[in-house]
Amino acid sequence: MKTYQFPKGFLWGGATAANQMEGGFKEGNKGLNIADVLPGGKERLNILQTPGFKFEIEDGKFYPNHEGIDFYHKYKEDIALFAELGFKVFRMSIAWTRIFPEGTELEPNEEGLAFYDRVFDELHRYGIEPVVTISHYEMPVNLVREFGGWRSREVVHFFERYVQAILHRYKTKVKYWMTFNEINSGLEFPIMGLGFAIHEEADKYQPTFQAYHHQFLASSMAVKLCRELIPEAKIGCMILYAPVYSYDSNPDNVLYALKEAQLFNYFCSDVQVRGEYPSYIKRYFKEHNIQLDIHEGDLQLIKENTVDYIGFSYYMSRTEKIEKKPEEMGQGNILGGVVNPFLQASDWGWSIDPVGLRISLNELYDRYRVPLFIVENGLGAKDKVEEDGTINDEYRIDYLRNHITAMGEAIEDGVELMGYTPWGCIDLVSMSTGEMSKRYGFIYVDRHDDGSGTLQRKKKKSFVWYKEVIESNGRNL
User: How many Å is the maximal CA-CA distance in the chain?
Assistant: First the structure.
């Protein structure tokens, strides 16, 4: 097998999110967030894509994010395992509602701030640098109910107060920041990313893109504050990236794929990295009767406060054509598209395309010429605990090996890649389905879809493999 020369100081690690792992639902004066009101199971994906969600906890439904995997109480045990793996960095998020439970308070919640002090201190005890996402699908529900989420410009000011609080508190403890997790995912899942549910399909365009304008302002403001308070830190954006292939060489399908890629893959990063609205979006706004409420100084703030790097998630590619037949559709690809006959799929129907990662890295770097950071990538699969307690997840090793190989090829192509933090380095609650059975981790957590289990941690076969990958800086795959 070919070996690759990864850069010295390459940031190997793993990725998680507060709402999917912490638990401690009402502990430490934590407030209610969006993930807290999403029930688990197959129903969740339907909720995310169906109009009319009410953002309320209902009797008789199970809410797996309330306990997560109890990182809130087990963080020392988990961080010790991350250190054993050899992590250089650990991507995590701060729960907004631990710091401002309702989102509107004038002063931050000291219990929440102190919790993350303890987590960061524990990471540093092992020489692990935190990579912190400021907002990762956990907006305070109060801001959703009272202000309509990011549709309201007032939320920008609440977010600024939150950002000021955490940057001041952790300015000596966090060197790597990202503003919004998978910011472009709001085009598909506005409940998670934008903090509101679409009620009428015909009315989705104006509120969606006005909400994006407010998020771009909030992101730029966070960049500005970070540079003022922690000038030595790096702050990036974070997008969900899936290369869009044309189903065939029909120019109409090629053009359709291009337009889909422009809107989903590039719109948000064009604004955050280049500092301005892209030219192609003007036609889209005109065709959908979108007129943004832009205040004086907004565009200057965006232009002057672009990000240092692009963090992105990569799970799948997407294949598109204009005229789609029902039998051609990919059942599991959450971003849509038709089945690509050249690719296999995961247990959940997500296309597996390591070459697509190399394509993605080249596309992003050629477009932006800023450092890239793969902050999510992984295989959700059904793991089996054998009678002797082992978990032989060779399929996960194969998946990750092929994707790391693609990274090595992209680096040889000339791509500047900062690091790699596979998603769900420890099993956690799935965002899209709320399931525990969709496992990503190197570390197995004994918790199941119905909430049962001991929460005991076990090392999978992939644990040993990834440890060797990090020790060899990617040479031993």
Answer: 66
Residue whose entry in the numeric block shows the structure tokens 């961080």: 79
pLDDT confidence of 137, banded at 50, 70, 90? very high
Q: Is the pTM of this model over 0.90?
A: yes
Rounded-to-integer distance, Cα 397 and Cα 391, Å:
12
**What is the tens place of the pLDDT at every residue in 138-164?**
999 999 999 999 999 999 999 999 999
Domains of the chain plus CATH, in order, are: 11-471 (3.20.20.80)
Residues 6 or more apart whose CB falls under 8 angstroms from that of 325 comprise none
Q: Return d(Cα 330, Cα 289) in angstroms, integer.
A: 31
Annotation says 260 is catalytic: no
Is 454's pLDDT higher than 80? yes
- Give the residue from 260, 170, 263, 273 showing the smallest Cα distance to 219: 273
Exposed, middle or buried by CB within 10 Å (0-12, 13-18, 19+), for 82? buried
CA distances from 193 to 58, 206, 216, 459 (A): 22, 16, 13, 32
The runs of H, that is alpha helices, within 263-353 are: 267-269, 280-287, 298-304
Distance of CA 412 to the CA centre of its chain: 26
β-bridge mates for residue 239, sequence order: 312
Mean pLDDT of 372-395: 97
Given the residues 67, 320, 376, 409, the one annotated as active site: 376
pLDDT for res 332: 64
The pLDDT value given to residue 43: 78
